[in-house]
Write a structure and sequence with these properties.
- The complex is a heterodimer of chains A (284) and B (808).
- Chain A is 35% helix and 26% strand.
- Chain A is an alpha+beta fold and 284 residues long.
- Chain A folds into three domains: 47 residues, Uridine Diphospho-n-acetylenolpyruvylglucosamine Reductase, domain 2 (2-Layer Sandwich); 110 residues, Uridine Diphospho-n-acetylenolpyruvylglucosamine Reductase, domain 3 (2-Layer Sandwich), CATH 3.30.465; 104 residues, 2-Layer Sandwich (Enolase-like, domain 1), CATH 3.30.390.50.
- In chain A, helix 7 packs across helix 8, helix 9 packs antiparallel against helix 10 and helix 10 packs across helix 11.
- By secondary structure, chain B is an alpha+beta fold.
- Chain B has four domains: 172 residues, Aldehyde Oxidoreductase, domain 4 (2-Layer Sandwich); 182 residues, Aldehyde oxidase/xanthine dehydrogenase, a/b hammerhead (Aldehyde Oxidoreductase, domain 3), CATH 3.90.1170; 166 residues, Aldehyde Oxidoreductase, domain 4; 205 residues, Aldehyde Oxidoreductase, domain 4 (2-Layer Sandwich), CATH 3.30.365.
- Chain B is 28% helix and 25% strand.
- Chain B has 20 helices and 33 strands.
- In chain B, strand 11 and strand 12 form a beta hairpin.
- In chain B, helix 16 packs across helix 17 and helix 18 packs across helix 19.
- The longest helix of chain B has 28 residues.
- The relative contact order of chain B is 0.12.
- Classes of the chains: A alpha+beta (284), B alpha+beta (808).
- The interface between A and B is medium-sized, with 24 and 31 residues.
- Bound molecules: flavin-adenine dinucleotide (FAD).
- Chain B: Keywords: Copper, Metal-binding, Molybdenum, Oxidoreductase.
């Protein structure tokens, strides 16, 4: 478990980061908390001749809760998400989800930016961000651009971010209504067998909007527009729940692994989504 | 002389047996001051590590080391061709087989050692490993032992004659080139007859999956050959340092007095560190070749994939009984998957360990056991993971068979156990498969356990739950797991227990210092069990000096007396006995010195806590401290100066700890997630030396039992790839997954052990695995479940529910 030799860069600003990226192309990679990247390097599944540590860059560690949106810097750690009282009020689903990621040691190091940029289908934040309709801001040699979370993920470890771009911030429209992040895992520190992020707005006994995304059930996170649509206009009764689950099952494509075979994962995905919707609805 | 403290205070001051003395080891461990193998740093030390096979079965066409030797810092690359002239390309295993040190023409399991790269630091070693080019030709892979016994593919060509004949193995005739041995015990004919004519018979097949002890510290060593004085020092994670010294001497030809083996602090063993591994041999050779110390440390994946797995037993049983539940016979067949080499760590005469304890705690008049060992393309090992040799398998087997029989009889499983227990008055009890159980009082323990957990109340609650489930009011089932186990530990009597011809006695040597403190050295080695704490307590009670004044030292073969090491819960039963016996020799001499000092006859003084007193005149006494001083400063006629003793203890029998466990579990049938609501563990380990350490051992053993029952496995795919090579997939429970354990005890001392102690380190694992498993299975019993295999991870529990139609 020893990585191949690499050059370590620690630029003090974004210009320095971009310069190294430009010089070395896909031989260079940025490192945030390192808790996905370093294990891959140690297993020699990722070879990174030029490692660019983002810790000294600055300007990416703030959480800014505004009236109608929330901006989270890429270097904000999962632990900081959990500890931020204002954020917990404004978007409690972030805290609920972050508490189910890995373990405290990992969360002190792992960042929001690293979690969403990594592109591992097992990461919890990508699905969460799709549910919340977040937008990722990236900066590259040609300046800044915004990419919606729902358009960011192409395949496992393949995203819409170019190699020489750095993700700087995640912006979330202030979430409304009830929420739930439900995750089944085998043990602490495990990625999801199945996880569901649900955000629901209710008017009286009627659901007026619902957003649903699933984690680790395809080679990308799965935003299931149809599952959400199945709830809208209903009282989230048994029929609506059944329709939402059916729609979600059409959108996911799990594969067999040590967590279990496909039939099990589909079944659990349905159970987890049902529970998430029920909990979100009860909070709406 | 007058005493200013009471007798009770004098007892307390000793911190002897029965005292929950704090562990003396913990000060250094909790402050990061332990000294593990990887902490050893020597001048000019090099690092060695392996090129490992990515294939489970392949021929090696070529190994090209040229590029590796070009890597800066790389000094040497060893292959089998380099070891062959020394006769070290193969080594003997503990099971009478031999094992390749480095791949000799072929590989037999994924991760097998192919070449050994030696470089100036770990990083250069890793780069050197990447640069070694090995050309493989893949061969058909067999990961299933039943298939192996039918296949034309010969895994071990070295064990087949040129004419295709199959020479006998270390344990007798072999039936097939991939067959290792057949071993049996008991009366086959009678057992088959009893079962054929029985009123009731329950049959079941079960697979006890392959898993791994996974100590926190992986295996490793530092070898240092001093070419000037010809002495080899070998530090390593050895559970049996003396045996390692003998083995190293036998295979290297270095005289044993020129070898010093040191086990420093060890971060858990659980059986993983009993065997001899290629890493040790290659490090020794590399040190001889380079003239420098060489360190080898496994990483986690190496450890999980290559050193010493546990279990992997396919067991088929038949149990017969009368209509009212009296068991009449038991038949067990095991197909044992040993992997590519037979490297099981068992006493020589027991190739399936003590699997023949599989009649359990029950009075079963006839029984028969037959075990077939088989080669497959999996890693070698077969160690006793936190149990005495294969006892976990045996207890799992019988505790499942009892449950299946209860289903067959439509009887309560607790009651079925009760009516079949060996009765207190039957001890010493000779079981149908040969063992003589030294002592036990099973009914008392069982009744206490069932009463404490309110067993009847639990069953009533469970019945209600089933109704609620059927009525659609809940999706959670409730399982009540029971297990009653008898362990067989403390191997063992030299007449039937040896490893590589070394009798399984153990030893203790004591030196009392003039000022009344002492050092005792033993042939065992702690890996976390707290020997430095408990052995001092045994001695404190035996020789009347405070435990705090007694240093316990183990693990250095130059200083410690010869012993067979620590595994199989043998330290207390064997070395603990040696300690007590050596203490009694000290006391015998102390008695003579006391008598001389008190000017009375030897028989006129008696031992009292921390002193000898003149019988009938307790005000006349000499403390052990005074006696110790006298031993060194007085010329006593007829008595040699000094106060030292050595004892080598050959136990007359094994010891038989037992226990009664109950687990209450809720199971979510939709997700397959189990939740442990309660776990009650009653252990009877005979005399209790340190209750706090016992409790710690029980917690640890139960946690490893939970792991094995609920998810921990070494799984292979059809190509022989290990699917669980990291801690992401290999289940190691954390505080989060572990319930609160309730511990309890009864005390039935061993009649043949000098202090009546039986050993406890492994009981909770042995009893815990079936208890957790039975809880899962019991939850589904009302819906028709008979048996499902472990590990009961989420998807397999879900599958059980699914197959029983609970998702419809
Ligand atoms: C034991 C363990 C358990 C875990 N369990 C979970 C879990 O349950 N759920 C979960 O979601 N995660 C889990 N993780 C992963 C953890 O949350 C990681 O920290 C996270 O995935 C990545 O964040 P990081 O800051 O560590 O990123 P890094 O490891 O530093 O980087 C990850 C990848 O993202 C890229 N990257 C990082 N930052 C940027 C940026 N600003 N711009 C562009 N690219 C960037 C890197 O180049 C790299 O390719 C676990 C990790 C461990 C070690």
């Amino acid at each position: 478990m020893i990585p191949a030799a690499f050059e370590y860069h620690r630029p003090q600003d974004m210009a320095g980061v971009l310069a190294v990226l430009e010089e070395h192309g896909d031989d260079a990679r940025v490192m945030a908390g390192g808790h996905s990247l370093i294990p891959m390097m140690k297993l020699r599944m990722a070879e990174v001749p030029h490692l660019i540590d983002l810790q000294d860059v600055g300007g990416m560690s703030d959480i800014d809760v505004r009236a109608d949106s929330i901006v989270i810097g890429a270097m904000v750690t999962q632990a900081e998400i959990i500890d931020h009282a204002e954020l917990a009020d404004a978007a409690p689903i972030l805290r609920e989800a972050a508490l189910q990621i890995a373990d405290p040691q990992v969360r002190y190091m792992g960042t929001v930016g690293g979690n969403v940029a990594n592109g591992d289908p097992g990461n919890d934040m990508p699905g969460l961000m799709q549910c919340l309709n977040a937008v990722f801001t990236v900066v590259g040699p040609d300046g800044e651009r915004d990419i919606p979370a729902r358009e960011f993920y192409e395949a496992a470890y393949m995203t819409a971010r170019e190699d020489e771009e750095v993700l700087t911030a995640v912006t979330i429209p202030a979430p409304k209504g009830g929420y739930a992040y439900e995750k089944q895992k085998r043990k602490i520190g495990d990625y999801a067998t199945a996880a569901a992020a649900v955000q629901i707005v209710r008017d009286g006994s009627n659901c007026v909007s619902a957003s649903i995304a699933m984690t680790n059930l395809s080679d990308t996170p799965v935003y299931s527009e149809n599952a959400g649509a199945a709830l809208v206009g209903t009282s989230v009764d048994a029929a609506a729940l059944g329709a939402a689950v059916a729609a979600m099952l059409d959108d996911i494509d799990p594969t067999e692994d040590n967590r279990g075979p496909v039939a099990f994962k589909n079944h659990v995905a349905g159970v987890i989504l049902r529970r998430a919707i029920e909990r979100a609805w009860s909070r709406a | 002389m007058k005493d200013d403290i009471s007798r009770e205070e004098r007892v307390d001051n000793l911190k002897g047996m029965g005292c929950s003395r704090k562990r003396v080891e913990d000060a250094r461990f909790t402050q990061g001051k332990g000294n593990y193998v990887d902490d050893i740093k020597l001048d000019g030390m090099l690092f060695g590590d392996f090129v490992r096979s990515p294939y489970a079965h392949a021929r090696i066409k070529n190994i090209d080391t040229a590029a590796a030797l070009e890597v800066p810092g790389v000094l040497a690359v060893l292959t089998a061709a380099d070891l062959e002239p020394l006769g070290l390309h193969w080594m003997p295993t503990l099971a009478g087989d031999k094992q390749m040190v480095l791949a000799d023409g072929k590989v037999l399991f994924q991760g097998q050692e192919v070449a050994y790269v030696v470089a100036e630091d770990r990083y250069a070693t890793a780069d050197g490993i990447e640069a070694v080019e090995v050309e493989y030709e893949e061969l058909p892979v067999i990961v299933n032992p039943f298939e192996a016994l039918k296949s034309d593919v010969v895994l071990r060509e070295d064990l087949v004659g040129e004419d295709g004949s199959i020479p006998d193995g270390a344990h007798g005739p072999r039936k097939h080139p991939n067959h290792i041995f057949t071993w049996d015990a008991g009366d086959k004919g009678t057992t088959e007859e009893v079962i054929a004519n029985a009123e009731v018979v329950a049959s079941e097949s079960m697979y006890y999956h392959r898993t791994h002890p996974c100590p926190l510290e992986t295996c490793g060593c530092v070898a240092s050959m001093d070419k000037v004085n010809g002495k080899l020092t070998l530090w390593g994670t050895f559970q049996a340092p003396h045996a390692i010294r003998t083995v190293v001497s036998l295979i290297s030809g270095i005289e044993e007095h020129n070898i010093r083996v040191i086990s420093p602090d060890i971060g858990g063993g659980f059986g993983n560190k009993v065997g001899a591994y290629p890493g040790y041999v290659c490090s020794v050779v590399a040190s001889i070749v380079t003239g420098k110390p060489v360190k080898w440390i496994e990483d986690r994946m190496d450890n999980l994939m290559t050193t010493a797995f546990a279990r992997d037993y396919h067991m088929t049983g038949k149990i017969s009984a009368t209509k009212d539940g009296k068991i009449t016979g038991l038949h067990c067949h095991v197909t044992a998957d040993h992997g590519g080499f037979d490297a099981c760590a068992d006493p020589t005469k027991f190739p399936a360990g003590f699997m023949n304890i599989c009649t359990g705690s029950y009075d079963i008049p006839t029984a028969y056991l037959e075990v077939d060992g088989v080669y497959t393309n999996k890693a070698p090992g077969g160690v006793s993971y936190r149990c005495s040799f294969r006892v976990t398998e045996a207890v799992y087997f019988i505790e499942r068979m009892i449950e299946v029989l209860a289903i067959e009889l439509n009887m309560d499983a607790a009651e079925l156990r009760r009516i079949n227990f060996i009765k207190k008055e039957q001890f010493p009890y000779t079981a149908a498969l040969g063992w003589e159980y030294d002592s036990g009082d099973y009914h008392t323990a069982w009744d206490k356990a069932l009463k404490t957990v309110d067993y009847d109340g639990l069953r009533a609650e469970q019945a209600q739950r089933v109704e609620d489930f059927k009525a659609g009011k809940t999706r959670k089932l409730m399982g009540i797991g029971l297990s009653f186990f008898t362990e067989i530990v403390g191997a063992g009597p030299v007449k039937n227990c040896d490893i590589l011809g070394l009798g399984m006695f153990d030893s203790c040597e004591i030196r009392i210092h003039p000022t009344g403190s002492a050092i005792a050295r033993l042939g065992t080695i702690s890996q976390g069990q707290g020997h430095a704490t408990t052995f001092a307590q045994i001695l404190a009670s035996e020789i009347g000096l405070p435990a705090d004044s007694i240093t316990i030292e183990e693990g250095d073969t130059d200083t410690a007396p010869y012993g067979l090491g620590t595994y199989g819960s043998r330290s207390t039963p064997v070395a603990g006995a040696a300690t007590a016996m050596a203490g009694r020799k000290i006391r015998a001499k102390a008695q003579m010195i006391a008598a001389y000092l008190l000017e009375v006859h030897d028989n006129d003084v008696e031992f009292d806590v921390d002193r000898f007193v003149v019988k009938g005149a307790p005000e006349k006494f000499k403390t052990m401290k005074e006696i110790a001083f006298a031993a060194y400063n007085q010329a006593i006629p007829g008595i040699e100066p000094g106060l030292e003793a050595v004892s080598y203890y050959d136990p007359p029998n094994m010891t038989y700890p037992f226990g009664a466990y109950v687990c209450v579990m809720d199971i979510d049938v939709d997700t397959g997630v189990p939740e442990i609501r309660r776990f009650y563990a009653l252990d009877d380990c005979g005399t209790r030396i340190n209750p706090m350490i016992i409790e710690g051992q029980v917690h640890g053993g139960l946690t490893e039992a939970l792991a094995v029952a609920l998810g921990q496995e070494i799984a292979y795919d059809d190509m022989g790839n290990v699917k669980t090579g990291t801690l992401m997939d290999f289940f190691l429970p954390t505080a989060w997954e572990v319930p609160n354990y309730e511990t309890d005890y009864t005390v039935t001392p061993s009649p043949h052990h000098p202090i009546g102690a039986k050993g406890v380190g492994e009981s909770p694992h042995v009893g815990g695995v079936p208890c957790f498993s039975n809880a899962v299975q019991d939850a589904f019993r009302p819906f028709g479940n008979r048996h499902t295999n472990m590990p009961h991870d989420h998807w397999r529990i879900w599958r059980t529910a699914n197959e029983l139609g609970l998702h419809d």
